Amino acid sequence: MPLYEYLCPTCDHKFDKLQPMSSQGADCPNCEQPAKRAISVFARVGKGGEEHPGFSPLPPLSGGCCGGGCGCGH
Fold first, then answer.
1. DSSP string across 34-48
2. pLDDT > 90 in the chain, percent
3. Nearest Cα to Cα of residue 26 among 42, 43, 40, 14
């Protein structure tokens, strides 16, 4: 289940909620009004706030449709 970020337009409260992808939204835990899903980005950080060594946010450009990891031959 993904973790979604929400922002309440009524009271400006930001919160996270773990819910299924099929979920249609969430109510603010502060004022109980409907909140809007916020756009968020995945960040992977290591100890001390540094990126993990060898971590690349983009797949390799060679190897076909999936970087050569699926074995499909493309």
1. EEEEPP-------GG
2. 41
3. 14
**What is the pLDDT at residue 33?**
97
pTM passes above 0.70? no
Residue 21, Cα to own-chain centre: how many angstroms? 12
Q: What residue type is 3 in one-letter code?
A: L
27's tokens: 């109510």
Structure-token pair, residue 59:
């797949």
Please report the sign of the dihedral spanned by the C-alpha atoms of residue 44, residue 50, residue 55, residue 56: positive
What integer is the mean pLDDT of 46-63?
Answer: 55
Q: Where are the beta strands (DSSP E) in the chain?
A: 3-7, 14-18, 26-27, 34-37
